[in-house]
Amino acid sequence: MDIFDRINIIATILTAETKILAPEGRRKSWKIVYPDGKVRYSPTKPTEKEISEEAPSEEAPEKGQVEVSKKEMSDMKRTLKKELGELPDNVDDLIKDEVAKLRGKKTETKSVFTDEENALPDKSQQKVKTEKELFSEAKKAQKDMMKLLDQGKGLDKAMGAKHFDIAKGDKPDLDTKGPIIITAPLKGKERSKEKVEADYGGDWSKLKDVVRASVGVDSFEQVEEVVQKLRDMGMELAEKPTDRFANPTSAGYRDIKISVKYPNGHIGELQIHLKSILKAKEQAHKDYEVVRSIEAKAKKEGREDLTDEEQKVVDEANDKMKKAYEDAWEGATARPAAKAASLRMAAPKTRYFELEGNPVVLVYKKFPVMTVKGKDKVYYDFFKLFHDGREISKREYGKLKKG
Prior knowledge:
This protein is of the alpha+beta class. 41% of the residues lie in helices and 16% in strands. The strands form 3 sheets. A 6-stranded mixed beta sheet has the order 4-5-6-9-8-7. Strands 13-12-11-10-14 form a 5-stranded antiparallel beta sheet, sandwiched between helices. It is globular and about 65 Å long. It starts with a helix and ends with a helix.
Protein backbone atom coordinates (compact mmCIF):
# COMPACT_ATOMS: atom_id res chain seq x y z
CA MET A 1 0.00 0.00 0.00
CA ASP A 2 1.59 3.31 -1.07
CA ILE A 3 1.43 6.74 0.57
CA PHE A 4 -1.34 7.96 -1.76
CA ASP A 5 -3.55 5.00 -0.89
CA ARG A 6 -3.21 5.54 2.86
CA ILE A 7 -3.73 9.31 2.66
CA ASN A 8 -6.80 8.93 0.49
CA ILE A 9 -8.37 6.43 2.89
CA ILE A 10 -7.49 8.42 6.00
CA ALA A 11 -8.53 11.74 4.46
CA THR A 12 -11.88 10.23 3.52
CA ILE A 13 -12.43 9.08 7.10
CA LEU A 14 -11.29 12.35 8.64
CA THR A 15 -13.38 14.52 6.28
CA ALA A 16 -16.53 12.40 6.42
CA GLU A 17 -18.38 14.94 8.59
CA THR A 18 -19.28 18.58 8.00
CA LYS A 19 -16.36 20.75 9.13
CA ILE A 20 -16.59 24.23 10.66
CA LEU A 21 -13.39 26.24 10.20
CA ALA A 22 -12.84 29.46 12.11
CA PRO A 23 -11.28 32.51 10.39
CA GLU A 24 -7.59 31.88 9.84
CA GLY A 25 -4.80 33.80 8.09
CA ARG A 26 -6.13 35.80 5.13
CA ARG A 27 -9.54 34.15 5.34
CA LYS A 28 -11.68 36.43 7.50
CA SER A 29 -14.92 34.46 7.29
CA TRP A 30 -16.10 31.22 8.86
CA LYS A 31 -16.09 28.26 6.51
CA ILE A 32 -18.49 25.28 6.38
CA VAL A 33 -17.09 22.32 4.42
CA TYR A 34 -19.61 19.58 3.56
CA PRO A 35 -18.63 15.90 3.05
CA ASP A 36 -19.10 16.07 -0.74
CA GLY A 37 -16.80 19.07 -1.14
CA LYS A 38 -19.41 21.82 -1.24
CA VAL A 39 -18.57 24.95 0.74
CA ARG A 40 -20.47 27.78 2.39
CA TYR A 41 -18.92 30.93 3.88
CA SER A 42 -20.34 33.01 6.73
CA PRO A 43 -19.12 36.39 8.07
CA THR A 44 -20.14 35.26 11.58
CA LYS A 45 -20.00 31.93 13.36
CA PRO A 46 -22.54 29.76 11.50
CA THR A 47 -25.82 28.83 13.14
CA GLU A 48 -27.20 25.28 13.27
CA LYS A 49 -29.54 26.23 10.41
CA GLU A 50 -26.66 27.35 8.19
CA ILE A 51 -24.73 24.19 8.99
CA SER A 52 -27.68 21.93 8.15
CA GLU A 53 -28.47 23.67 4.86
CA GLU A 54 -26.85 22.16 1.79
CA ALA A 55 -24.31 24.47 0.16
CA PRO A 56 -25.06 25.53 -3.44
CA SER A 57 -22.99 23.61 -5.99
CA GLU A 58 -21.57 26.75 -7.62
CA GLU A 59 -19.69 27.51 -4.43
CA ALA A 60 -17.56 24.39 -4.66
CA PRO A 61 -13.96 25.33 -3.80
CA GLU A 62 -11.65 26.71 -6.46
CA LYS A 63 -7.87 26.50 -6.50
CA GLY A 64 -6.43 28.37 -3.55
CA GLN A 65 -9.61 28.05 -1.46
CA VAL A 66 -9.14 24.45 -0.36
CA GLU A 67 -7.51 24.42 3.04
CA VAL A 68 -6.48 21.84 5.61
CA SER A 69 -6.70 23.02 9.19
CA LYS A 70 -3.75 22.54 11.54
CA LYS A 71 -5.75 19.99 13.56
CA GLU A 72 -6.66 17.99 10.43
CA MET A 73 -3.04 17.99 9.29
CA SER A 74 -1.85 16.88 12.72
CA ASP A 75 -4.47 14.10 12.92
CA MET A 76 -3.64 12.76 9.46
CA LYS A 77 0.12 12.83 10.00
CA ARG A 78 -0.20 11.11 13.37
CA THR A 79 -2.36 8.35 11.85
CA LEU A 80 -0.08 8.01 8.84
CA LYS A 81 3.00 7.73 11.02
CA LYS A 82 1.33 5.05 13.09
CA GLU A 83 0.48 3.10 9.94
CA LEU A 84 3.64 3.70 7.90
CA GLY A 85 6.37 4.70 10.30
CA GLU A 86 8.72 7.20 8.60
CA LEU A 87 6.93 9.81 6.46
CA PRO A 88 8.27 11.49 3.30
CA ASP A 89 9.42 15.13 3.45
CA ASN A 90 6.58 16.24 1.18
CA VAL A 91 3.83 14.56 3.24
CA ASP A 92 2.12 17.93 3.94
CA ASP A 93 1.77 18.62 0.21
CA LEU A 94 0.51 15.11 -0.44
CA ILE A 95 -2.16 15.42 2.24
CA LYS A 96 -3.28 18.82 0.91
CA ASP A 97 -3.52 17.42 -2.62
CA GLU A 98 -5.59 14.45 -1.48
CA VAL A 99 -7.96 16.46 0.71
CA ALA A 100 -8.37 19.04 -2.06
CA LYS A 101 -9.34 16.27 -4.47
CA LEU A 102 -11.83 14.80 -2.00
CA ARG A 103 -13.41 18.21 -1.48
CA GLY A 104 -13.90 18.84 -5.15
CA LYS A 105 -10.88 21.02 -5.94
CA LYS A 106 -10.79 22.20 -9.55
CA THR A 107 -7.61 22.14 -11.61
CA GLU A 108 -5.37 25.04 -12.50
CA THR A 109 -6.89 25.47 -15.97
CA LYS A 110 -9.79 27.89 -16.40
CA SER A 111 -12.75 26.78 -18.51
CA VAL A 112 -12.73 28.07 -22.10
CA PHE A 113 -16.52 28.43 -21.98
CA THR A 114 -18.54 31.42 -20.85
CA ASP A 115 -20.62 31.50 -17.68
CA GLU A 116 -23.73 31.41 -19.87
CA GLU A 117 -22.53 28.29 -21.69
CA ASN A 118 -21.56 26.58 -18.45
CA ALA A 119 -25.02 27.38 -17.04
CA LEU A 120 -26.78 25.30 -19.72
CA PRO A 121 -28.56 22.10 -18.55
CA ASP A 122 -26.20 19.19 -17.84
CA LYS A 123 -28.11 16.79 -20.08
CA SER A 124 -30.04 17.04 -23.35
CA GLN A 125 -31.78 14.44 -25.46
CA GLN A 126 -32.81 13.87 -29.04
CA LYS A 127 -36.27 15.00 -30.13
CA VAL A 128 -36.98 11.52 -31.56
CA LYS A 129 -37.40 8.25 -29.67
CA THR A 130 -36.74 5.41 -32.12
CA GLU A 131 -33.70 4.04 -33.92
CA LYS A 132 -35.24 4.63 -37.36
CA GLU A 133 -36.13 8.25 -36.66
CA LEU A 134 -32.75 8.93 -35.07
CA PHE A 135 -30.75 7.72 -38.05
CA SER A 136 -33.04 9.54 -40.47
CA GLU A 137 -32.39 12.84 -38.68
CA ALA A 138 -28.68 12.01 -38.32
CA LYS A 139 -28.23 11.79 -42.11
CA LYS A 140 -29.49 15.36 -42.47
CA ALA A 141 -27.39 16.61 -39.56
CA GLN A 142 -24.25 14.98 -41.02
CA LYS A 143 -24.42 17.41 -43.97
CA ASP A 144 -24.70 20.39 -41.61
CA MET A 145 -21.73 19.10 -39.62
CA MET A 146 -19.62 19.03 -42.80
CA LYS A 147 -20.66 22.62 -43.57
CA LEU A 148 -19.62 23.69 -40.07
CA LEU A 149 -16.21 22.03 -40.25
CA ASP A 150 -15.25 21.56 -43.90
CA GLN A 151 -16.08 22.40 -47.52
CA GLY A 152 -13.76 25.39 -47.61
CA LYS A 153 -16.00 27.75 -45.68
CA GLY A 154 -16.15 26.30 -42.20
CA LEU A 155 -13.59 25.76 -39.46
CA ASP A 156 -11.14 24.41 -42.04
CA LYS A 157 -10.96 27.83 -43.72
CA ALA A 158 -11.14 29.82 -40.48
CA MET A 159 -8.09 28.05 -39.01
CA GLY A 160 -6.35 26.57 -42.04
CA ALA A 161 -7.06 23.07 -40.73
CA LYS A 162 -6.30 19.90 -42.67
CA HIS A 163 -9.28 17.57 -43.05
CA PHE A 164 -9.12 13.79 -42.63
CA ASP A 165 -12.32 12.00 -43.67
CA ILE A 166 -12.51 8.48 -42.21
CA ALA A 167 -15.40 7.68 -44.58
CA LYS A 168 -13.00 8.17 -47.51
CA GLY A 169 -10.32 6.01 -45.96
CA ASP A 170 -8.15 8.85 -44.65
CA LYS A 171 -5.85 8.00 -41.75
CA PRO A 172 -5.37 10.98 -39.40
CA ASP A 173 -1.75 12.09 -39.10
CA LEU A 174 -1.25 13.39 -35.57
CA ASP A 175 2.23 14.62 -36.51
CA THR A 176 0.74 17.11 -39.00
CA LYS A 177 1.66 20.65 -37.98
CA GLY A 178 -1.32 22.85 -37.30
CA PRO A 179 -5.01 22.09 -36.64
CA ILE A 180 -6.65 18.97 -38.07
CA ILE A 181 -10.30 18.04 -38.51
CA ILE A 182 -11.35 14.38 -38.33
CA THR A 183 -14.81 13.46 -39.59
CA ALA A 184 -16.35 10.01 -39.51
CA PRO A 185 -19.33 8.27 -41.08
CA LEU A 186 -22.47 7.85 -38.98
CA LYS A 187 -21.97 5.59 -35.98
CA GLY A 188 -22.78 1.98 -36.94
CA LYS A 189 -26.27 0.75 -36.09
CA GLU A 190 -25.00 -2.37 -34.32
CA ARG A 191 -22.59 -0.42 -32.10
CA SER A 192 -25.29 2.19 -31.46
CA LYS A 193 -27.73 -0.49 -30.35
CA GLU A 194 -25.14 -1.98 -27.97
CA LYS A 195 -24.51 1.42 -26.39
CA VAL A 196 -28.19 2.27 -26.05
CA GLU A 197 -28.89 -1.03 -24.31
CA ALA A 198 -25.78 -1.01 -22.10
CA ASP A 199 -25.63 2.65 -21.08
CA TYR A 200 -29.10 4.10 -21.62
CA GLY A 201 -31.47 1.26 -20.74
CA GLY A 202 -32.88 1.13 -24.29
CA ASP A 203 -33.62 4.89 -24.52
CA TRP A 204 -32.62 6.02 -28.05
CA SER A 205 -33.19 9.69 -27.25
CA LYS A 206 -30.05 9.65 -25.08
CA LEU A 207 -27.71 8.61 -27.91
CA LYS A 208 -25.96 11.77 -29.11
CA ASP A 209 -22.84 10.63 -30.97
CA VAL A 210 -24.24 9.10 -34.16
CA VAL A 211 -23.00 12.27 -35.88
CA ARG A 212 -19.46 12.84 -34.59
CA ALA A 213 -16.24 14.64 -35.41
CA SER A 214 -13.00 15.75 -33.76
CA VAL A 215 -10.64 18.69 -33.98
CA GLY A 216 -6.98 18.26 -33.02
CA VAL A 217 -4.62 21.15 -32.23
CA ASP A 218 -1.06 21.66 -31.03
CA SER A 219 -1.58 24.00 -28.07
CA PHE A 220 -4.14 24.94 -25.45
CA GLU A 221 -4.29 28.44 -26.95
CA GLN A 222 -5.56 26.85 -30.16
CA VAL A 223 -8.23 25.01 -28.17
CA GLU A 224 -9.55 28.40 -27.06
CA GLU A 225 -9.34 29.66 -30.64
CA VAL A 226 -11.34 26.70 -31.99
CA VAL A 227 -14.13 27.31 -29.46
CA GLN A 228 -14.28 31.00 -30.36
CA LYS A 229 -14.32 30.32 -34.12
CA LEU A 230 -17.19 27.86 -33.67
CA ARG A 231 -19.09 30.49 -31.66
CA ASP A 232 -18.51 33.03 -34.43
CA MET A 233 -19.96 30.58 -36.96
CA GLY A 234 -23.16 30.25 -34.93
CA MET A 235 -22.66 26.81 -33.38
CA GLU A 236 -25.56 26.05 -31.02
CA LEU A 237 -24.89 24.08 -27.84
CA ALA A 238 -27.53 21.57 -26.78
CA GLU A 239 -26.22 21.27 -23.21
CA LYS A 240 -23.43 22.32 -20.88
CA PRO A 241 -20.13 21.38 -22.59
CA THR A 242 -17.85 18.82 -20.97
CA ASP A 243 -14.58 20.68 -20.41
CA ARG A 244 -12.01 18.14 -19.28
CA PHE A 245 -9.17 20.62 -19.66
CA ALA A 246 -10.66 22.43 -16.66
CA ASN A 247 -11.71 19.19 -14.94
CA PRO A 248 -9.56 16.22 -16.08
CA THR A 249 -10.71 12.66 -15.55
CA SER A 250 -9.27 10.46 -12.80
CA ALA A 251 -6.68 9.26 -15.31
CA GLY A 252 -5.60 12.82 -16.16
CA TYR A 253 -7.24 12.72 -19.61
CA ARG A 254 -8.13 16.14 -21.02
CA ASP A 255 -10.36 17.15 -23.93
CA ILE A 256 -13.58 19.00 -24.70
CA LYS A 257 -16.83 17.33 -25.67
CA ILE A 258 -19.58 19.49 -27.13
CA SER A 259 -23.13 18.39 -27.88
CA VAL A 260 -23.97 20.42 -31.00
CA LYS A 261 -27.59 21.09 -31.95
CA TYR A 262 -27.87 21.16 -35.74
CA PRO A 263 -30.57 23.07 -37.70
CA ASN A 264 -32.92 20.07 -37.89
CA GLY A 265 -32.76 19.67 -34.09
CA HIS A 266 -30.53 16.57 -34.13
CA ILE A 267 -27.75 16.55 -31.53
CA GLY A 268 -24.25 15.44 -32.54
CA GLU A 269 -20.91 15.25 -30.76
CA LEU A 270 -17.83 17.36 -31.44
CA GLN A 271 -14.59 16.75 -29.55
CA ILE A 272 -11.59 19.08 -29.32
CA HIS A 273 -8.23 17.53 -28.50
CA LEU A 274 -4.57 18.27 -28.01
CA LYS A 275 -2.83 16.03 -30.52
CA SER A 276 -0.19 15.09 -27.95
CA ILE A 277 -2.93 13.71 -25.69
CA LEU A 278 -4.47 11.80 -28.60
CA LYS A 279 -1.08 10.16 -29.14
CA ALA A 280 -0.91 9.26 -25.45
CA LYS A 281 -4.42 7.79 -25.74
CA GLU A 282 -3.28 5.52 -28.57
CA GLN A 283 -0.46 4.23 -26.35
CA ALA A 284 -2.82 3.83 -23.39
CA HIS A 285 -5.08 1.63 -25.53
CA LYS A 286 -2.08 -0.63 -26.25
CA ASP A 287 -1.01 -0.74 -22.60
CA TYR A 288 -4.56 -1.73 -21.65
CA GLU A 289 -4.74 -4.79 -23.93
CA VAL A 290 -3.66 -7.07 -21.09
CA VAL A 291 -6.43 -5.63 -18.89
CA ARG A 292 -8.99 -6.29 -21.63
CA SER A 293 -7.91 -9.92 -21.64
CA ILE A 294 -8.57 -10.10 -17.90
CA GLU A 295 -11.99 -8.45 -18.37
CA ALA A 296 -12.97 -10.79 -21.21
CA LYS A 297 -11.97 -13.87 -19.17
CA ALA A 298 -13.84 -12.71 -16.07
CA LYS A 299 -16.95 -11.80 -18.09
CA LYS A 300 -16.97 -15.23 -19.71
CA GLU A 301 -16.70 -16.84 -16.28
CA GLY A 302 -19.38 -14.55 -14.83
CA ARG A 303 -16.86 -13.43 -12.22
CA GLU A 304 -17.12 -10.16 -10.25
CA ASP A 305 -13.84 -10.38 -8.30
CA LEU A 306 -10.22 -9.72 -9.27
CA THR A 307 -7.34 -11.89 -8.12
CA ASP A 308 -4.35 -10.22 -6.45
CA GLU A 309 -2.36 -10.60 -9.67
CA GLU A 310 -5.18 -9.18 -11.81
CA GLN A 311 -5.54 -6.15 -9.52
CA LYS A 312 -1.80 -5.59 -9.82
CA VAL A 313 -2.01 -5.67 -13.65
CA VAL A 314 -4.88 -3.13 -13.62
CA ASP A 315 -2.91 -0.87 -11.25
CA GLU A 316 0.20 -0.97 -13.45
CA ALA A 317 -1.78 -0.19 -16.60
CA ASN A 318 -3.43 2.75 -14.84
CA ASP A 319 -0.06 4.07 -13.65
CA LYS A 320 1.26 4.04 -17.22
CA MET A 321 -1.87 5.70 -18.60
CA LYS A 322 -1.90 8.44 -15.98
CA LYS A 323 1.80 9.25 -16.48
CA ALA A 324 1.38 9.32 -20.26
CA TYR A 325 -1.45 11.87 -20.02
CA GLU A 326 0.41 14.04 -17.51
CA ASP A 327 3.55 14.04 -19.69
CA ALA A 328 1.52 14.89 -22.80
CA TRP A 329 -0.20 17.82 -21.06
CA GLU A 330 3.04 19.21 -19.67
CA GLY A 331 4.80 18.79 -23.02
CA ALA A 332 2.07 20.63 -24.96
CA THR A 333 1.47 23.45 -22.48
CA ALA A 334 4.64 23.81 -20.40
CA ARG A 335 2.26 23.69 -17.41
CA PRO A 336 2.73 21.12 -14.66
CA ALA A 337 -0.21 18.75 -14.41
CA ALA A 338 -2.15 19.17 -11.17
CA LYS A 339 -1.30 16.33 -8.82
CA ALA A 340 -4.03 13.73 -8.51
CA ALA A 341 -4.41 10.65 -6.41
CA SER A 342 -2.95 7.39 -7.59
CA LEU A 343 -5.47 5.24 -9.46
CA ARG A 344 -4.29 2.24 -7.46
CA MET A 345 -6.94 0.66 -5.28
CA ALA A 346 -6.42 -0.51 -1.71
CA ALA A 347 -8.53 -2.40 0.82
CA PRO A 348 -11.02 -1.39 2.12
CA LYS A 349 -11.27 1.44 -0.36
CA THR A 350 -14.46 2.22 -2.29
CA ARG A 351 -14.69 4.85 -5.03
CA TYR A 352 -17.70 6.34 -6.79
CA PHE A 353 -18.05 7.55 -10.38
CA GLU A 354 -20.56 8.98 -12.83
CA LEU A 355 -20.30 7.51 -16.34
CA GLU A 356 -22.70 8.35 -19.16
CA GLY A 357 -25.06 9.73 -16.52
CA ASN A 358 -25.04 6.47 -14.55
CA PRO A 359 -23.68 5.86 -11.02
CA VAL A 360 -20.78 3.41 -10.72
CA VAL A 361 -19.24 1.96 -7.56
CA LEU A 362 -15.75 0.46 -7.52
CA VAL A 363 -14.60 -1.69 -4.61
CA TYR A 364 -11.08 -3.04 -4.07
CA LYS A 365 -10.40 -6.27 -5.98
CA LYS A 366 -13.77 -6.17 -7.72
CA PHE A 367 -15.00 -5.10 -11.13
CA PRO A 368 -17.04 -1.87 -11.25
CA VAL A 369 -20.82 -2.07 -10.82
CA MET A 370 -22.96 0.35 -12.84
CA THR A 371 -26.61 1.13 -12.17
CA VAL A 372 -28.72 1.71 -15.30
CA LYS A 373 -32.40 2.52 -14.82
CA GLY A 374 -32.40 0.97 -11.35
CA LYS A 375 -30.63 -2.24 -12.36
CA ASP A 376 -27.09 -3.09 -11.21
CA LYS A 377 -24.70 -4.77 -13.62
CA VAL A 378 -21.01 -5.62 -13.54
CA TYR A 379 -19.13 -3.25 -15.85
CA TYR A 380 -16.14 -4.95 -17.47
CA ASP A 381 -14.35 -1.86 -18.80
CA PHE A 382 -11.78 -0.28 -16.48
CA PHE A 383 -10.34 1.84 -19.30
CA LYS A 384 -13.61 3.62 -20.04
CA LEU A 385 -14.36 4.08 -16.35
CA PHE A 386 -11.04 5.77 -15.52
CA HIS A 387 -10.71 7.44 -18.91
CA ASP A 388 -14.22 8.90 -19.25
CA GLY A 389 -15.78 8.59 -15.81
CA ARG A 390 -16.10 11.48 -13.36
CA GLU A 391 -15.19 10.63 -9.78
CA ILE A 392 -17.91 11.77 -7.38
CA SER A 393 -18.70 11.70 -3.68
CA LYS A 394 -20.64 8.92 -1.97
CA ARG A 395 -23.43 11.43 -1.41
CA GLU A 396 -23.69 12.31 -5.11
CA TYR A 397 -23.54 8.60 -5.98
CA GLY A 398 -26.51 8.01 -3.68
CA LYS A 399 -28.52 10.74 -5.40
CA LEU A 400 -27.79 9.30 -8.84
CA LYS A 401 -28.63 5.82 -7.62
CA LYS A 402 -32.05 7.00 -6.43
CA GLY A 403 -32.65 8.60 -9.84
